[in-house]
Write a structure and sequence with these properties.
Mean pLDDT of chain B: 77
Mean pLDDT of chain A: 89
Structural class of chain A: alpha+beta
Helix content of chain B: 10-25%
Distance between the termini of chain A: 38 Å
Oligomer: heterodimer
Order of helices and strands of chain A: EHHHEEEEEEEEEHE
Largest sheet of chain A: 9 strands, antiparallel
Strand content of chain A: 35-45%
Shape of chain B: globular
Number of helices of chain A: 4
Number of strands of chain A: 11
Radius of gyration of chain A: 26 Å
Number of strands of chain B: 5
Helix content of chain A: 25-40%
């Protein structure tokens, strides 16, 4: 599971919490180890280069020994750093899903499992690359190439006690722009900037025996925040589809669980109880 | 609306909709005096408080979310999924912030009279048989 970094299945919310709760701590440990190893690697290389350069003029043999020791130490540390980096999980999907589970458990039908597909690989992997633009010019940059990634990191389905069925997908659309320019001194400088748009798409199906379509008057987010807000009635049910896009300049920025709660709450705002019953 | 039975837990389950907790009450809340079950006991050291009162207090800044308790893991304490109060804090905050009115599928409880909620209010419909969704 940790090697593939993709989890999918149908489990009760409690089983998902049991599975994902320890992963959060694991991820923190892996991240701490990666940072520790990265710092150690930087220190060893930096110190080795400085000492070797300083010794080179008056003790060439000692400088060579220091350089050799530095290379060996770096070679010993690097595999650990690489392993820790490989085992690191994407933070945003876990940070979003873990608090969501106890909330969904409140409404979930205990007899129906919660279906989830959670991708913890992050957006910037080759399999999620969807395209690359042709080089173009923009301002001072004589060459800009955009690489696009699509990362549907959370897909879920839940059935609630009131007969409502909820489907949702959270997808990151990442644009990685590699920009190259020539500075006034004639040097070529390249930098990479990334932007992320996260789209949340929600479909809520309400059974007609309990709910009827109504005006959205029950609080929740305003329709202005929504990219899509469609209601359809028929076939013994009312279906509401809503979606929202959240923009960020940081690809690792966490996503607030309230965005999904907003969309589901808005869908509930589009219906009204059709009868008086107790659950 | 019909009031909940005396032996039933007074806390409401749900986030988008609210319904009665099916568990039997075992203890009384030191704040609201309602009786509630072990599932809805907030994590406190010297007091027995229901998760709904604990969530209200947390929102008002009166106490830390899990005061007196060491989190089981090094998670951000507020989002520890093992904390039974987590969904209730989210719920209290969400209802306050967005004025969200949940669907009411439970028994009447004056504790909730300060909140807005939606329920089927048709005086000509006398279909309240107290049954569940599976009985029709």
């Amino acid at each position: 599971m940790l090697r593939q970094k993709v989890l999918s299945g149908a489990r009760s919310p409690d089983e998902w919490i049991e599975l994902l709760g320890p992963l959060v701590q694991y991820d923190r440990d892996a991240e701490a180890m990666r940072k520790h190893m990265g710092r150690r690697l930087a220190w060893v290389i930096g110190l080795g280069v400085i000492v070797a350069l300083a010794a080179a003029s008056f003790q060439p043999i000692a400088a060579a020994v220091v350089a050799a020791v530095t290379i060996v130490a770096a070679l010993l540390i690097y595999p650990r750093y690489r392993f820790a980096k490989k085992m690191d999980l994407a933070d945003a999907p876990l940070g979003f899903t873990v608090p969501l589970l106890p909330i969904l458990r409140e409404d979930a039908d205990p007899a129906k499992p919660l279906e989830l597909k959670l991708d913890l690989r992050g957006a910037l992997v080759s399999g999620k690359r969807t395209g690359e633009t042709k080089p173009y010019k923009k301002g001072a940059y004589h060459k800009v190439v955009d690489t696009l990634y699509e990362d549907p990191w959370l897909v879920g389905h839940a059935e609630f006690v009131d007969g409502t069925a909820l489907d949702w997908t959270v997808t990151d659309h990442v644009r990685s722009s590699k920009k190259t320019k020539r500075n006034p001194r004639g040097k070529i400088k390249t930098k990479t900037k990334r932007k992320k748009k996260t789209s949340l798409d929600v479909k809520v199906v309400f059974p007609a025996k309990n709910y009827a379509a109504a005006q959205a008057t029950a609080g929740g987010p305003s329709a202005g925040d929504l990219r899509k807000d469609v209601i359809k009635t028929g076939d013994g049910r009312t279906t509401v589809r809503v979606s929202r896009v959240v923009k960020s300049n940081d690809v690792n920025a966490p996503l607030d669980v309230n965005h999904l709660l907003d969309l589901v709450a808005h869908a509930y705002g589009r219906v009204a109880p059709a009868r008086r019953k107790k659950l | 609306m019909e009031a909940a039975g005396l032996n039933g837990c007074a806390c409401k389950r749900g986030f988008f909709t609210l319904r009665d907790c099916p568990n039997a009450a075992t203890v009384a809340c030191d704040i609201c005096s309602r009786r509630f079950c072990a599932d809805h006991l907030a994590l406190r050291v010297d007091a027995k408080v229901c998760v709904e009162c604990a969530a209200k207090q947390a929102e008002e800044g009166a106490v830390r979310p899990s005061a007196g308790r060491r989190p089981t893991r090094d998670l951000r304490e507020e989002d520890d999924p093992a904390d039974p109060g987590l969904p209730y804090r989210y719920r209290a905050r969400y209802y306050d912030y967005y004025d969200y009115e949940p669907m009411w599928w439970g028994s009447y409880d004056p504790y909730w009279s300060d909140y807005g909620y939606r329920w089927y209010d048709d005086s000509y419909d006398d279909d309240d048989d107290g049954g569940g969704f599976g009985d029709s």
